[in-house]
Amino acid sequence: MRKVVLFAVIISILSACSTGRKPTQPTPPVSVAPPAETEQQILARIPKPIGSFGTAKKKLYNKIYKGHQRTLYCDCKFTTTGKVYLGSCGVDSRKNERRAKQLEAEHVFPAYHMGQNRACWTQKLCTNSKGEPFKGRKCCEKQDKVFRVAHNDLHNLYPAVGEINGDRSNYKFGMIAGEKRAYGQCDFEVDKEAKRAEPPENVRGNIARTYFYMSKTYNMPISKQQRQMFEAWNKSDPVDDWERERNQRIEKLQGNKNPYIK
């Protein structure tokens, strides 16, 4: 069998030489993706814990955004007590005006996507005070250190209009046809059927760089399609002075910068 294969290769080379063509090169092997990182490798590089989610929100509103009290998507003014001034940004409530006037901390990279493949999210590894087992977000916050630090990471938290934070849910970002607005002058659309949200153009780069940071820091996957979209957003909406200032303020509190903000 080896003689037959060798003879065929010799004939192919002689044939190529006679016609002046170079011999066909063998197809290179498909590249193998690097092995998944261990929890210890991820833990070795994540920032120092900022504390509970409640603590993270207080630091976000009172320290990170001190002197720049504007929400991410709609650029609404807000107070340190958690009140949003809808009139300052032309936002209309879609349905829940009470929640619309409430300030909330938006996970740009959703908590659901952080935890959906982790054991604490899918298996009942925790028990409550009554001894009843449970799983999901609360279990991950209680038991999983990587999730807990990622969940409260200030680089991924932004002040947002409460109703919009709720409507966005855990939907992925993308483009929505029609530009049908439900929040007055705020250029933020949500398609519940497609489970997609489209943010204003002037914050798309901020969102892209946040996703890149979360993926790199916590080894969290981003689909090829989304990564391509975020690459485009990163270019179309470059870093501005406030984003750099925000990055520096966060570094002082949790010890690390987003390397994609330069």
What overall form do the CA principal axes indicate?
Answer: globular
What is the overall number of helices? 12
* Rg calc: 25 Å
- Pattern of helices and strands: HHHEEHEHHEEHHEHEEEHHH
Main beta sheet strand tally, sense and closure: 3 strands, mixed
Mean pLDDT: 88
Beta-strand fraction estimate: 5-15%
Structural category is: mainly alpha
The helicity comes to 40-55%
Q: Give the low-confidence spans.
A: 1-35
Q: If strands are numbered along the chain, what order do they take across the biggest sheet?
A: 7-9-8
How many domains in all? 1
Tell me how many strands there are.
9
Distance between the termini: 60 Å
What does this structure look like?
- With 262 residues, the protein is mostly helical.
- Helices cover 42% and strands 10% of the residues.
- The strands form four sheets. Strands 7-9-8 form a three-stranded mixed beta sheet, with no helix packed on it. The chain has a two-stranded antiparallel ribbon with strand order 1-2.
- Helix 7 packs across helix 8 (145-151) and helix 10 packs across helix 11 (224-236).
- The radius of gyration is 25 Å and the shape is globular.
